[in-house]
Fold these 3 entries.
Entry 1:
Amino acid sequence: MQDHPQATGWARPFFTIWTGQAFSLLGSKVAQFALIWWLTDRTGSATVLATASLVGLIPEIALGPLAGAYVDRWNRRIVMIVADAAIALASLCLAYLFWIDAIQTWHVYAIMFVRSVGGSFHWPAMQASTSLMVPKEQLTRVAGMNQTLNGSLNVFGAPLGALLMSLLPMHGVMMTDVGTAALAIVPLFFVPIPQPRRVAVGEDLSEKQSIWADIRDGLRYVLAWPGLLILTGVAMVFKIVLTPAFSLVPLLVKDHFGGTATQLGMLEAAIGGGSIAGGLALSVWGGFRKKIYTMALGAVGFSLAFLTWGVIPGDLFWAAMMSGAVVGLMIPLVDGPLMAILQSTIAPEMQGRVLTLFGSLIWITSPLGLAMAGPISDRLGLQIWYSAAAVLSLLSGMVFLVIPAARDIEKNANGDRSRPLAAVHRA
């Protein structure tokens, strides 16, 4: 059993940090939009855009477990300050290069890489700290708020970026990202964040375990816990399905529904609006008492929405819009409880390692899903992929309900009984 914060007095310090982080995410979204559009306008190359995406993805896959191991060793508040500052400094460098008109494509690649490295450390530090700042029974609601925030950023981030680009030069847009990063950093100097103290039975605290041993501990922690292992496998299947499903939407709109950029924007807005609604609903409702049941509901909803995309004729775009709203609505019902389960069941001193290992495994499956979806869709048509996605989503939901190790994961939270209990102190 792990320690959790008190049910009262937690909201003010947590939401002080959360609000600063929300502004920082908005600034990052605006900067990301501006950089992608600059690359598009300057090069007109799909290869350049794909390379930019790959540069941003590689650190999350390759550095995830290593970053998580260090997050579990280091002061998480300091990790967030340094990571946010590094990302802000990278944006400041870009702003300077734009200002002196010396910017090159490789500069953008390099800065995107640095920003992704910073994010690889910041994300696990924030998520692992959340579980020690927020009472266990409130984690799902907080996850719902995070999903609402993500949905809002997806809906409003790009238009805001376009607006700022019309009002400011590129170096001004990048300075906006620097300013919002400052809003995230300042509260971290004043708000205490819980820090798990790793105390091992019979271990001399002066002896340091190697970082690779820490990573192996994280892997053993997952492998020794059947419920978490099953949840990881199902999440990987979900990512194999979802990444191509969203990547193929533009082709679905253009080739099947005969739409234009306007119709694509309408469908993406429907998905984003559904995501906001789902996040708000989860924030208020909190989900079922067993969080895994909320995830199962989301998986079934995905299945129905994808099946609609897979069978409707090309003259029923309005039905595709409605299904898109359902897809958006289901995203928080899956992602929110999933993060709440991980935060409430993984031992505090292991969360950095396990969360980043989990994330790396999930992201590894994205290229696999894209590699499968392309040939399948080219040979059998786009809609066959969405029908297959519907089946896999439904099977994933069934796993949550019928396999005891997954269904009762919150009850069987002590995945590695050999580890001592964590003591928590304020950092």
Entry 2:
Amino acid sequence: MAFNKNIFELALHNSSFRQIVVTGEHSQLVLMSVPVGGEIGEEIHDVDQTLVFVSGHGRAILNGHSSDVYAQHLVFVPAGTKHNFKNVGSDELKLFTIYAPAEHE
């Protein structure tokens, strides 16, 4: 399925924690909105994950190392990396993420 839309606008208007946008044979695009004080939850995937932050202020924790993320930040999480992302700002943390290969049904 081809996809050609303004992903930043879709991410800004998304209010779902996880909304699958499109799934291809080798990757998957997902919108996420993390509430104030919320987090994605610590996890480890068997797939690579790329996260692009659109708005808000978050904290990335990758294998125990913490760093801030803001709009226009990209974080690449290789398969097998323990990770979590927390919303530490005063607004929802909006992002889109690409799993390669697809992670969610």
Entry 3:
Amino acid sequence: MKIVLKILVSAFIVVALSNLLSGVDISGYLTGIFVAALLGLMNVFIKPILVLFTLPVTVVTFGLFLLVINAVLVLIVESLIDGFVIDGFWWALFFSVLLSVFQSILYSIFERRERKGLR
């Protein structure tokens, strides 16, 4: 059940960011759920492989290259889902950074509430 809640929270953030950012467009809430689920799968299965292959560049850039990897994953998801459009690499980078920040904030709020037993 926890994973479903994370996907729904991520979908809410994806839809909200598409309304805030002019370079990101999403066709609806269901598309937001698909984008969030696919991004989650990409982060679990594809991202570790990309990080492993780009480890020297990541070390040289003190980890900043991980932002590029996140943007590339967003662009891959954009190419796989029809109702999700991003206007370029820089919008994907900005979208991925904001998505990560808002996910961290909301996940920590839900985790704190769960620890207190306020479900």
